[in-house]
Design brief:
Elements lengths: L8 H19 L2 H9 L3 H29 L2 H20 L9 H33 L9 H33 L8 H10 L4 H14 L8 H37 L6 H7 L6 H9 L1 H22 L5 H9 L3 E2 L2 E2 L8 H22 L6 H22 L6 H7 L10 H29 L5 H17 L1 H10 L2 H21 L1 H7 L2
Antiparallel strand pairs: 1-2
Length: about 500
């Protein structure tokens, strides 16, 4: 698999895999944690989620700037791993639930999230920049796209198992406290304690309380609500601790193998700190055009990420509120759908690489910008599927008034599974190839910054995620998905309109 690729690709991919395992352990449960821990509604949880996701990627620009200025990419990456571990520690320490001092504990949680985001900014883009530098060698240049696809695949190997780890730890702790898992109960518990449940929701709360309690129907529903919330949230806290272990593993892998990774400082020393001839020539003739091309692509992909990263927000809400969490006799959790995307990435990456290889052999392989445009069209199709599958479901407000849907009222889990499959194909046309595109087009002196700019575009798309949460709560569900269809189709059209210009610049 790694034949004909640089020696440093595998250790870089493994280090990234460990970090991503920790990250996606957290992301699989973050919105549900915020709602169960603090009693936040979907809109406010969505705002925190989108700001955090925005910070993750916008701070990658800062991390790229630091690495480019110091030329110490490896040191910046190591620092990032340590900072991330500290952030995970802040949110892993259990605190009482229901929360007595909401401003204090929510502030501590947000501080932990910011620390994680800053550490990720130091790590993520700079590791990608090092991978790109491996392919600056003419010996490996033609393998750049496939190299980044393999790198991306390993990210998702870690992400496959991350939600399972989070679910396992949460459900283990619930069982230790004498409870079973139910996705609707945290919201109902908060509503009961706050006195905001409708009669129908109150009746459902009482029925579910009896179902999940090992000792039968609780005599004191107030005590049950507090105990269930505390067990549910504490299980999530312990799940965050898994991410700390993942950071340590990633750190060890990186340290052991750092000698196999490029070192720009050594390259600069070899030329007495003076840029090479190619770099001087590019600075004189091509830098401006290349930066404009990268800026244009980054601007367009903002809207793809706005749509795609709904997988951790509105699609997760849909899994909890509308999806039958059962396949045959096998019970599911709402968070488990977060494993679908990375699973499909790992499964489909070799197939997509083989497809592009066949096209390359025939001289018909689309350019990288064309692949990105096609991916946006595929993403639009995914949300068309969600539209069709959501036509007859009640609104989110109606579901809340009922206290949740019965199994008979829920849609098949294969709707979400199919949507994640299609979205993953779109992602494989955009994300790894976009990173490859940036590494190829970015001027040598701006590698870290331009990788940060790509991640910055992702950041802006993520900052817009909360709009999806607002739409989810205020308009018919099918129309929410329709919004993402329109956004993706517009992005595809704009990308195709720039194709000739982009192809000319990237030759």
């Amino acid at each position: 698999m790694f034949k004909n690729h640089p020696k440093g690709l595998l250790p870089a991919a493994l280090a990234n895999m460990g970090e991503r395992f920790g990250f996606y352990t957290m992301m699989a449960i973050l919105t549900l944690f915020l709602m169960s821990k603090f009693g936040l509604d979907k809109t406010h949880a969505g705002i925190i989620y989108s700001v955090f996701y925005f910070s993750i990627y916008i701070l990658a620009f800062v991390g790229g700037l630091i690495a480019d200025k110091t030329r110490n990419y490896k040191g910046t990456i190591l620092t990032g791993l340590i900072v991330m571990a500290a952030g995970y520690l802040l949110i892993a320490i259990p605190t009482p639930t229901p929360v007595g001092n909401l401003p204090l504990y929510l502030t501590v949680t947000c501080l932990g999230l910011f620390t994680i985001a800053f550490g990720n900014g130091l790590f993520k883009g700079n590791l990608q920049a090092l991978v790109g530098q491996m392919y600056d060698n003419e010996k490996f240049g033609k393998m750049r796209d496939s190299g980044f696809s393999l790198f991306y695949m390993f990210i998702n190997v870690g992400a496959i198992f991350a939600p399972m780890a989070a679910i396992g730890v949460r459900n283990w702790w619930l069982s230790m406290r004498g409870f079973l898992y139910n996705p609707d109960l945290p919201e109902l518990c908060h509503g009961f304690l706050g006195g905001t449940l409708s009669p129908d929701a109150a009746a459902r709360f009482e029925g579910l309380a009896a179902e999940v309690s090992a000792n039968g129907a609780p005599a004191d529903l107030t005590a049950f609500a507090a105990e269930y919330l505390n067990a549910f949230a504490t299980g999530f806290h312990y799940a965050f601790a898994v991410a700390i272990v993942a950071m340590v593993i990633s750190l060890v892998i990186f340290v052991i193998n750092r000698k196999n990774l490029p070192d720009p400082r050594k390259a600069a020393a070899a030329t007495d700190g003076k840029p090479g001839a190619a770099e001087v020539q590019m600075a004189a003739k091509e830098v401006r055009q290349r930066i404009w091309a990268l800026a244009a692509v980054c601007a367009v992909v903002i809207f793809f990420w706005f749509s795609f990263h709904q997988n951790g927000l509105t699609l997760t809400f849909f899994a909890k509120d509308y999806t039958l969490l059962k396949i045959g006799s096998f019970d599911l959790s709402a968070e488990i759908f977060q494993s679908m995307n990375p699973f499909f990435v790992v499964f489909l990456t070799p197939l997509v690489l083989a497809f592009f290889g066949i096209m390359r052999a025939r001289g018909k392989e689309p350019s990288t910008p064309a692949k990105i445009a096609i991916g946006m069209g595929i993403a639009a199709f995914a949300y068309i599927v969600m539209m069709l599958g959501s036509m007859n479901v009640p609104t989110a407000a109606e579901v809340a008034k009922m206290g949740g849907l019965s199994d008979a009222q829920r849609v098949t889990p294969f709707l979400l599974i199919g949507t994640y499959l299609i979205l993953t194909i779109a992602e494989l046309f955009i994300s790894p190839l976009g990173i490859s595109f940036v590494s190829k087009v970015a001027p040598p002196q701006y590698q870290g910054i331009m990788q940060g700019a790509w991640l910055g575009a992702t950041a802006i798309g993520n900052q817009l995620l909360f709009i999806g949460a607002i739409l989810y709560d205020t308009i018919p569900i099918w129309l929410t998905w329709g919004t993402f269809v329109v956004v993706c189709l517009i992005s595809m059209t704009v990308m195709f309109s720039m194709l000739k210009w982009l192809n000319r610049i990237t030759k």
